[in-house]
Amino acid sequence: MPTRKKGTKPVRDIAKRANRGRKAYIVPTERNANGFVAGESFLERNHLLLLSLQVGLRRVSDQAVCIDLENETLVPSRAELPKKAGRKVTSYTADSEYERADGQVGVCESKPSAFLEKHAEKHARAEKTLSKYGKPFMTLTEEGFTPVFISNLENLKKALRDGLK
After folding, report:
1. Strands 73-75, 91-93: pairing kind
2. pTM, 2 dp
3. Residue 130 pLDDT > 60, yes or no?
């Protein structure tokens, strides 16, 4: 497993969660200080792969934004979430964050369609909070990732890696 550079850890490091029976999907990218980003699901991995190849993006980060949904604020880490009655408030950690060449920072989420229907209210609150901070919120579902599209992304990534050398 690749290691992250000191001081560049995400809000929630999903690579560590892999020790609890979950998988971490690694996507190598020059657009992250660590040289890679990680996703918890195959869908998230495909999304990160797409972002790593997206023209006009300067930076891509995984699990970079933590949202305090109750107070509608952004917090720098999950440890800094306020407590209410001895428990941490309801929060939301988005899958990835990107920065465009023009400096605009946006947030992305990768979720199955069924999940979005089930958690629509929480998702809407996250979008509302991010819009207060001027961060666009984009959600990708499995509908855009056909097997042919995924294969083409993987092949393009391989071709570009060899071409950059």
Report:
1. unpaired
2. 0.79
3. yes
